[in-house]
């Protein structure tokens, strides 16, 4: 199963992106608010960023090196229109698996759940490759059964650990306490640190 650029463009054009919150996700907002001032220069990637409310929030907090990658040109245009001060060269119109830069922090927000579940081991390997020494990936994963035939796809902690433990030290993977109401009980907050 593979969803092409045209598939995602069509979904954004038709606004068929039901998991799009229209705002920064509260658990990630709380995480961003806790990052120290000294982190403002770190390089951050948001894969499959879509409308990228997280990137917008980080940008307005003063983070200078936030990048968004997405295969939907429409999603990136939506973002650029909404946040014209965001550096255009930090909007990467390409497949996440073809990104060749390195980052200190990767933010996961709905991209993992949009991938064909068969690509989950490849995702874990790729984020390990993209991170600098001691780099981190932090974000949200859906915490409900993997039962659908199209995105978004769910999963559960034990499954996720099989992908991440070979590459990362798992610092946190627990149910969110501050999800929006519609996602209450359906999200895991996680933070992983790259292992050599």
TrEMBL record:
GO terms for biological process: methylation. The keyword Phosphoprotein applies. It comes from the Bacteria. One of its GO terms (molecular function) is methyltransferase activity. Keywords: Methyltransferase, Phosphoprotein, S-adenosyl-L-methionine, Transferase. Pfam families: TPMT. Signal peptide: none annotated. The keyword S-adenosyl-L-methionine applies. PANTHER family: CYSTEINE SULFINATE DESULFINASE_CYSTEINE DESULFURASE AND RELATED ENZYMES, PTHR32183. This is SAM-dependent methyltransferase. It comes from Bizionia gelidisalsuginis.
């Amino acid at each position: 199963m593979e969803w092409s650029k045209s598939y995602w463009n069509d979904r954004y054009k038709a606004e068929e992106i039901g998991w799009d919150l229209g705002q920064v996700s509260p658990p990630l907002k709380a995480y961003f608010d806790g990052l120290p001032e000294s982190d403002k220069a770190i390089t951050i990637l948001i894969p499959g960023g879509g409308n990228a409310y997280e990137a917008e929030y980080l940008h307005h907090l003063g983070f200078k090196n936030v990048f968004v990658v997405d295969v939907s040109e429409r999603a990136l245009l939506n973002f650029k229109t909404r946040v014209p001060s965001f550096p255009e060269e930090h909007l990467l119109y390409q497949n996440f698996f073809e990104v060749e830069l390195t980052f200190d922090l990767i933010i996961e927000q709905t991209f993992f759940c949009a991938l064909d579940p068969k690509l989950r081991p490849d995702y874990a390997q790729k984020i390990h490759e993209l991170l600098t020494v001691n780099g981190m990936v932090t974000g949200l994963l859906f915490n409900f059964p993997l039962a659908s035939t199209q995105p978004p796809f769910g999963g559960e902690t034990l499954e996720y650990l099989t992908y991440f433990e070979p590459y990362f030290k798992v610092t946190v993977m627990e149910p969110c306490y501050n999800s929006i109401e519609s996602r209450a009980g359906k999200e895991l907050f996680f933070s992983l640190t790259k292992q050599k």
